[in-house]
Amino acid sequence: MHLVDVDVPSPGKGEIRLRQTAIGLNYIDTYHRSGLYALPLPAGIGMEGAGVIEAVGEGVKGLKVGDRVAYGVGPRGAYARHRNVPASRVAKLPKSISDETAAGMMLKGLTVRALLRSVYKVKRGETILFHAAAGGVGVIFTQWAKALGVKVIGTVGSDDKIAVAKAHGCAHVINYRTDDVVARVKEITKGAGVPVVYDGVGQATFMTSLDCLRPRGLLVCFGNASGPVKSFDLGLLAAKGSLYVTRPTVMTYMADDAELAAASRDLIEIVKSGKVKIPVNQRYKLADVAQAHRDLESRATTGTTILIP
Q1: Is the pLDDT score of 227 beyond 90?
Q2: What range defines the domain where residue 225 resides?
Q3: What is the CATH number of the domain that holds 196?
Q4: How far apart are the first and last CA of the chain?
């Protein structure tokens, strides 16, 4: 990855030009960089950012020069100081939410909103399982789930991260390096298992996730931090209790502008309420993005990481 200088044209019809003040770092960025999600090269990467509108294209309504906005589901190319984006894909920010917070909350927060309200609609009183509970998506997910009256069992990879997960709403936390995750989940649920497992880790946790489900439970595989799941025998779903598996993407769930706008409003409102806090725990200069990727992939980060252009 290299920083290069390019000319940014005037915004086209329905577009705005942003001077970006903060950019969010996400695991999907590493998939684009590595080629796991193939892109035509050369290409920009990055899915979320925040900044100030510098220019408004023809036909844009409800936004003006000087407004603070943020976006979280692309278009790809957020690793930039200035860029043009469709006006229909941004959300106006209230004064109570800083640019750094906004840049770190949009993609992860919209992902969480889809996971909790659309992919599987959680119910008050349920106990569910979430892997990597101290990560960027995890700390938003656990807080939001708690606000909905849901108990979260979270898994983490170190004792230090246990404290992070508990501080952000996990009712129970399991260190997957030292504990038997399936046995602990069965103990917590009195042998029943959970109705849904949210798994952004992928290959390393896939079978464990299936074994934590109750009969007819749902495994939501929404990421591949440890690598993608390959060559799976569907017969195992029958043997383990007529289970369901889905592989959602937030881009599919937020493809419609109206649905994106509604989800963005929900996210902004719950952050404004204080029920969900966005911990910006790491900051890197945009020029140092390669190191940021190394740290993210080595699981050396917690909460949200942002890049400063």
Answers
A1: no
A2: 124-247
A3: 3.40.50.720
A4: 15
